[in-house]
């Protein structure tokens, strides 16, 4: 990406089968001033959801808008800050990890 934008975070956390398996993915791109300009947060588990490249739950800002993925359904979200989106993802992921059927607020 041009204009001093760089991928600042590229993390993958593989979960044990005892913790439900799958992978948590976190990618963050920042501008030269340290502001988040693009992000991708995802819980991927092909055993739970085969569609959407295995993405069970995710938030990203690709395609020019902020949106949420949940088991193949994509919805636009209101964006206030990256920190707010990341906290929401964490809350929903925690519900999924605890065996909750839905990851909704």
Structural overview:
The chain has a 6-stranded antiparallel β-sheet with strand order 1-2-3-4-5-6, with helices on one face. A hairpin with a 5-residue loop joins β2 and β3. The mean pLDDT is 91. With 105 residues, the chain is of the alpha+beta class. The chain starts with 5 loop residues before the first strand and ends in an 8-residue tail after the last helix. The longest helix is centred in the last third of the chain and has 16 residues. The protein contains 1 helix and 6 strands.
How is the topology of this model organized?
Elements: E1 6-14, E2 23-30, E3 36-44, E4 55-60, E5 67-70, E6 73-76, H1 82-97
Antiparallel strand pairs: 1-2, 2-3, 3-4, 4-5, 5-6
Enumerate how many helices there are, as a single number: 1
Strand content: 35-45%
Structural class: alpha+beta
Trace the largest sheet across and list its strands.
1-2-3-4-5-6
Uncertain runs with pLDDT below 50, 5 residues or more? none
Largest sheet: 6 strands, antiparallel
- Please state the overall shape, judged from the principal axes of the Cα atoms: globular
Series of secondary-structure elements, N-terminal to C-terminal? EEEEEEH
- Would you count the extended β strands for me? 6
Mean pLDDT: 91
- Percent of residues in helices comes to 10-25%
Distance between the termini: 33 Å
Radius of gyration: 14 Å
């Amino acid at each position: 990406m041009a204009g001093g934008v760089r991928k600042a975070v590229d993390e993958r956390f593989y979960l044990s089968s005892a913790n439900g398996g799958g992978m948590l993915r976190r990618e963050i791109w920042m501008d030269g001033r340290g502001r988040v300009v693009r992000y991708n947060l995802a819980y991927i588990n092909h055993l739970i959801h085969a569609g959407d490249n295995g993405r069970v739950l995710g938030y990203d800002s690709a395609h020019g808008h902020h949106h949420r993925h949940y088991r193949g359904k994509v919805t636009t979200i209101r964006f206030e800050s990256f920190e707010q989106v990341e906290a929401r993802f964490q809350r929903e992921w925690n519900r999924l990890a605890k065996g909750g059927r839905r990851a909704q607020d």
